[in-house]
């Protein structure tokens, strides 16, 4: 009986909307199993009656299938939002909003059930949808976007280092992160190589101070990190430096390193329903990074970091350099040693200037630095080399006095 019914009622039901189309799973076999079982049960009890198939039970199955399709096809209306930056004219660009759609699930189910009652099982049903309009226009959104977080640090006079800072700042400036997108500092700036204009400058690799392309870029990532925290954005990846930084409070830095494949990164996901953007300006040795967006924090609420040193480690054993211009046994400290430290950082939330929350945020461990000491252990003393200018002064009997 089941086989004959299924051969008579071939199922090929589809729902479509524009270029979208979905096949509906055939619910008849499951319905027949239940109804035939009931019929045979009555037959065994001695009831001899004709039976008519009841298709009303299919409605619940169809509702579930149409609901799954609606989840795929429904699209929220998108408000106008900041979408880019015209650097040439120093202007932000705003996109207009987009209408959304909502599938009318009930109307589709009722139309399909009407076809089934007419014994029509092969059909394509055009989905009924309702358009939804954005809540905010571009003009309104321009007023809603603000500087929601900003932070500044000061660079050194090292030209190579400042060149690298400038390149990284330019890569960040005007970047827009749309809802649901993840920001990666390394992917945004790219590999810091000579071919891309980065120059050798001081950087730490495996705990050693080395000259490598990209030195100084960590100051950019640390400046950005603070701006993000102040804006109310939580990062998904942040790493402390090997050693205490000088341009931000220890515990409030963000170290990055990139070899083209991986490395410590600074990341965050835009969990808002509007875009956020980065403004990065490097001028007169000052780095200023601002986050532009619709305010995340409530009016009067501010977020900051509070860090304090909670532990110190003994500094490493001194490193020695032989210097035969010194007297035997004489030692000269060229560079003082530094103890290793542990810093704890708290996230401080204030309302109208009054602290309302002071939550533990993270801990950062920094290595100690060995002192550099010159000494003479050979027993032989060599006169220090003099420059040609110094030799000319000596020959003329002139002693150079400090000004």
Overview in brief:
The chain has 403 residues and is of the alpha+beta class.
Structural write-up:
- With 403 residues, the chain is α+β, with helices and mostly antiparallel strands.
- It contains nine helices and 22 strands.
- Strands 8-16-15-9 form a four-stranded antiparallel beta sheet. Strands 2-1-6 form a three-stranded mixed beta sheet, with helices on one face.
- Helix 3 runs antiparallel to helix 4.
- The longest helix has 17 residues, at 28-44.
- Mean pLDDT is 90; it is low at 392-403.
- Average pLDDT over all residues: 90
What characterizes the major β-sheet? 4 strands, antiparallel
Q: What is the helix content?
A: 25-40%
Distance between the termini: 114 Å
Total count of helical runs of at least 4 residues:
9
Query: Can you tell me the overall shape?
Result: elongated
Q: Rg to the nearest angstrom?
A: 36 Å
Determine the structural class based on helices, strands and strand pairing: alpha+beta
Per DSSP E runs of 2 or more residues, the count of β-strands stands at 22
Strand content: 25-35%
Q: What ranges have pLDDT less than 50 throughout 5 or more consecutive residues?
A: 392-403
Strand order of the largest sheet: 8-16-15-9
Provide the descriptors you would attach to this structure in a database record.
four-stranded antiparallel beta sheet; three-stranded mixed beta sheet; elongated; 403 residues; alpha+beta
